[in-house]
Amino acid sequence: MPPGPVPPGGWGPAPWGPPGGEEPRQRLHPLSPALHGAKSLVVVIAGLSWSTLSRVGFGWFAVLVAVFVLGATVLSVISWWNTGYHVVGRELRVHEGLLWRRTRAIPLERLQAVEVVRPLLAQLTGLAELRLEVVGGGKTEAPLAYLGVAEATALRQRLLAVAGRAPAPAPVPADGGGVPAAPAPAGRRLHAVRNQDLLVSQLLTPQAFLLPLGLAFVVAQFLSEGSWSFIAVASTLTAMAGVLLQPVRRVLDDWSFRLDADGDTLRVHNGLLETRMQTVPLHRVQTVGVTWPLLWRVKGWLRLRLEVAGYSAAEPDDRNRPDRLLPVGDAGTGARVVAEVLPGVRLDALPGTPPPVRARWLRPLSRAAVGAGLDERVFVARSGLLTRRVTLVPYARIQSVRVTQGPAQRRLRLATVHADTAGGAGAAAVDRDLADAWALAAELTTRARTARQADRSV
């Protein structure tokens, strides 16, 4: 039978492809409207509030909730019917829109990473969300929510293969059977963080130490006044929630953290309520940050973070950024992971010299903790007094070098040298002698140019 057109409005599997052999459009999973409707339910109930329930009664309140949820579900179904995706050449095209139809074409050569994210509802229904990061994107591109886990994993591998990041899986069947559910490669395990260490690390934080003091203050206040007021209880609970939010969130986000190496990419698996599988191309790593929190130094622990080009700093949720390299680990583990990301760099043998003695007028306590140095492969910048930090910048990732001086620095003949990267943060050698600062800037410029030329010749 000769090929014919795709049925009107139908983007699911079809017995033939569209004219010209173009791959048929695929719909998202049929349960996608149900998950979007469930999220709408929470928003609706929160929007109607307790005061609405007290005014109209439970019966009318349930009717209002049902009407709103039904309307949201109908809109979700219509939106799902008009949403589809397919790969055309070296582009991923996403078709969407309820009233105004639009098509987004994402060039896969700009693709930096594809993440498989599984929120709690998606885990319960066996689904996953696919998120894409591209160079210069203002936010995460074209999230496909939701797909089956096998389909999301196979599509991720296929997109990375087209972008030149991974071996290509089998092609899509001509009968529209969808993306083959090929398993992702196993890779090589670098490290798996013990959940016990993760919990202990968050107990060794200022928030955990301040919480007993806050409880003691509240109890003392109650004993002195002899009664509780609503405002006192509400303010106490709010303060406790604010104090505990950051460590609890870190535990939930980094639960069962695993780091794998797969060729020239890293794969990060983490999360409890929302599981994530992120792929980080090593050639997009701009900086590696090493942090030694004050209380962690008792156990010899450190934390590693990445700065990756292509991930937007404007992303409202910092959990979308692939900055996790090692949530907590000992010195040996940190050195091994750093050597994997930056071959030839030894974490225990980094060079660094402090600012001149006259910089003590600007840094009376932290002058000895600040420093900078030139390793054979990276620029090293140290900072921090209570929480010590080291930033490693590969020379090939340096985009520009700046020398700045503030009013106090000019009087003391000091300057700060900035090594800027495509990710935006970079590193800085602060309060250097003015002549040394200009010499350091010239050396960084030369090394950056040589490293980039070496990268292009490979």
Task: Describe the structure in your own words.
By secondary structure, this protein is an alpha+beta fold. Helices cover about 35% and strands about 30% of the residues. The protein contains nine helices and 19 strands. It has helices at about 30-80, 120-125, 150-160, 195-205, 205-225, 230-255, 330-340, 405-410, 435-455; strands at about 85-90, 90-95, 100-105, 110-120, 125-135, 140-150, 190, 260, 265-270, 275-280, 285-290, 300-310, 325-330, 370-375, 380-385, 390-395, 400-405, 415-420, 425-435. A seven-stranded antiparallel sheet has the order 6-5-4-10-9-8-7, with helices on both faces. Strand 8 and strand 9 (about 265-270) form a beta hairpin. Helix 4 (about 195-205) packs antiparallel against helix 6 and helix 5 (about 205-225) runs antiparallel to helix 6 (about 230-255). The longest helix is centred in the N-terminal third of the chain and has 50 residues, at about 30-80. It is globular, with a radius of gyration of 27 Å.
H/E element order: HEEEEHEEHEHHHEEEEEEHEEEEHEEH
The helix content is: 25-40%
Number of helices: 9
Note the overall shape.
Answer: globular
Main sheet overview = 7 strands, antiparallel
What's the count of strands? 19
* Uncertain spans: 1-20, 167-184, 312-316
Task: Indicate the proportion of strand residues.
Answer: 25-35%
Strand order of the largest sheet: 6-5-4-10-9-8-7
Assign the structural class, choosing from mainly alpha, mainly beta, alpha/beta, alpha+beta, or little secondary structure.
alpha+beta
Rounded average pLDDT: 81
Gap between N and C termini: 50 Å
Q: Rounded to an integer, what's the Rg over CA atoms?
A: 27 Å
